[in-house]
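Lecture notes, unit on protein representations.

Consider one protein chain, 528 amino acids long.
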Amino acid sequence: MLPPSSDTIGADAGPASPRAGRRRLARATLLAVVFLCAACGLVYELALVSLGSFLIGNTATQASIVLAVMVFAMGIGSLSAKPLQRWPVTWFAAVELTLALLGGLSVMALYAAFAYLSLYTAALVVVAFVLGLLIGAEIPLLMVLLQRIRRQDAGSAVADLFAADYIGALLGGLAFPFLLLPAFGQLRGAIVVGLINAVAGVLLVVVLFRRDLSRRGLAAVGAGATTVITLLVAAFAYSGTFEVTARQALYRDPIVFAQRTPYQEIVMTSAPSLRGAEDIRLFLNGDLQFASPDEYRYHESLVHPAMANRPRRVLILGAGDGLALREVLTYPTESVTLVELDPVIIRLAQTDSRLTRLNRGSMTDSRARVIAADAFNWLRTTDEKFDAIIVDLPDPDETATAKLYSTEFYALVAAHLAPGGVVTVQAGSPYFAPRSFWCIGATLADAGLTVLPYHVDVPSFGDWGFFLAARTKPTLRMAPVAPTRFLSDDELRAAQVFPRDRPPLQLPPSTLMDPRILRYAQDEWKQY
């Protein structure tokens, strides 16, 4: 039974009395706060999942860790709130202000743990547990406050409270990707939600239940709210500087461009090389995409075997930096179609002077048609055929990219090959990630293509592998006149030989429903 309170709002008032009206307004206000608190709580969860996906990859694992730990902690928090129900107003204020501060700063704290301490996973578990503990303590305390406004049977009170809670979760779930991330980004978005959380909780206490607090208690709530809000505002103001500083700690060379897009974090660094030239490096979600001193080795090896028959129509999937396109355009092709997911990468490759020097203006060449689209979906919506298809996509170590190394994807690629057409695919390192490499070959074969593996040395990457694939057995060779700095027929003959300590592996293919490539890639690249 709830403890009696002489300050119960509207107690013993008839249904048509002014007190009844105030009671209804008070209940509506409390349920609105429940709505906002639920929205804030879900945003904290989504922010942790999103940050882990950007920094670590593997969205499924990050979501599992965050949700499992937070739901478990919410149960512990609900039980822990039992003795606090004797003083629900005081403890609700304390819980909300603590949750607002820690939730608002959670993304910043985890980014710092990743950038400076290399303790991300351990820190994630601790943060998720603490936030879950506080979120779990909210509901019992709010239930007591709801009953103080108007006593009702337990089933009705639970129904009202959880209806507001679940609907608020819908608001938070939609606001995070469609409003907070585009408008504020991850760091500032979490801080903004923390401010909303703090204001909502304090207003509920001050407006509806201030008579339950002594003057000293009210002063303590005011001081706590002022401190929390001040800290969050200061963090918001400092967040830009913090992000730049923490990001730079992750990279060896000075950052000259950085932007987080809806798809990935793009970072470009620049530093003088040993030869005196500028060493430009492009990173996507922390993974190196190219280094200018040796990128020609990679791109020549990827592109020129596909161009041996002088194809007229060429398709490039990925490679939005324009470097593979640069190599294709050295041949007298009629047209080249490039499909890149991220418009920001396209714009960078078209306008940034560092990249345009490297790609020789290929992204604005009259023969090039550049399309901003998801490669998987684009292949499903076009019936065009190509004489050569070059697949240069990010490594399959994240959930979002694993589908681009599946039997279903390669079947789509094969369906767009003209008679006699060939495909080249970048496939990672057969030395550092042999299971990933040979799984890609097995997946291409499962899609009905005959494959020929080869590998070359790219100093920035190490030993790097590719597959040449076609409907019939392909031949690895150069065009009669190939304008290259590195690749030759002799190099390609050597590239087909694999050492005894890295022999071919017989592996099952990767599919959309069973993305083996994702497990292989994550396990192997963690070791290096």
